[in-house]
UniProtKB/TrEMBL annotation:
GO molecular function annotation: core promoter sequence-specific DNA binding
Species whose genome carries this gene: Rhabdobacter roseus
Gene3D superfamilies tied to this protein: lambda repressor-like DNA-binding domains (1.10.260.40)
Residues in HTH cro/C1-type domain copies: 61-114
Alphabetical GO biological process terms: regulation of DNA-templated transcription
Protein name, entry field: HTH-type transcriptional regulator/antitoxin HigA
Length: 122
């Protein structure tokens, strides 16, 4: 096992290839330990060079709705009416504090995600 920090794209690709080769190694074997370490190193490299931005509040709501197989009508109670749900999801109206509180509970989303600023449609 020759583990070192991943510094280049070539090293990153080599680490991915090696991880793929030993991914299903039995737990407790040297290969399993190597896979665990490679996973951590790959994760750190990806955080630095391939960061994933958190979605804005409206996208986060839409993603969670899809995951939970919800329709717009399912959020009427949390947002205060059918037209209000439509206006918020089409970015014509901003979320209110009350909506954020309700949606955080209903959709199991962090209020931190929902309070981020976002652009309204023009």
């Amino acid at each position: 096992m020759n583990i070192k920090l991943i510094r280049t794209e070539a090293e990153y690709q080599q680490a991915l290839d090696r991880l793929e080769a030993i991914f299903n190694a039995p737990v407790g074997t040297p290969e399993s330990d190597e896979a665990d370490l490679l996973g951590l190193l790959i994760d750190e490299y990806e955080k630095k060079y391939y960061p994933i931005e958190a979605p804005d509040p409206i996208e986060a709501i839409k993603i969670r709705m899809e995951e939970m197989q919800l329709k717009q009508k399912d959020l009427i109670q949390e947002m205060g009416g059918k037209s209000r749900v439509s206006e918020v999801l089409s970015r014509k109206r901003k979320l209110t504090v009350e909506m954020i509180r309700n949606l955080a509970v209903r959709l199991n989303l962090s209020a931190t995600v929902l309070v981020k600023d976002y652009q309204l449609a023009e």
